[in-house]
Amino acid sequence: MAYRYKTEGVCSVYIDLEMDGNVVKEVEFHGGCNGNLQGISSLVKGMTYEEIKDRLDGIRCGFKQTSCPDQLVRAIEEAMVNN
User: Fold this and answer.
1) CA torsion, points 61, 4, 26, 56, in degrees to nearest 10?
2) pLDDT digits (tens, 9 = 90+) for 7-63
């Protein structure tokens, strides 16, 4: 399933996901720190939601209450509920 998530409180604007059940097949961040987000996208390919949540949930960026990795967890949660 393909899903687009509108981020909140971070530099990236949205996240495009491609999932197969609870497994992430593709991730593309739009906006934000390009190199870091390409790295995160590459690292999470083939991982399950549970694995990603265990590693990325709650990460903060500076003084922000969230981060792009944390927003990725939210994006996957929303995609799984809405599809």
Assistant:
1) 30
2) 999 999 999 999 999 999 999 999 999 999 999 999 999 999 999 999 999 999 999
Distances (CA, A) of 10 to 1, 25, 42, 70: 24, 23, 20, 10
List the structure tokens of 4.
């687009």
The CA distance from 35 to 32, in Å, is 9
Q: Is the dihedral of CA 40, 33, 13, 8 positive or negative?
A: positive
Strand partners, 4: 16
Query: Which residue type does 28 have?
Result: E
Rounded CA-CA distance 72/12 in Å is 11
Gyration radius of the chain over CA positions:
11
H or E segment to which residue 17 belongs:
strand 14-20
Task: Report the candidate in 39, 41, 47 with the shortest Cα–Cα distance to residue 28.
Answer: 41
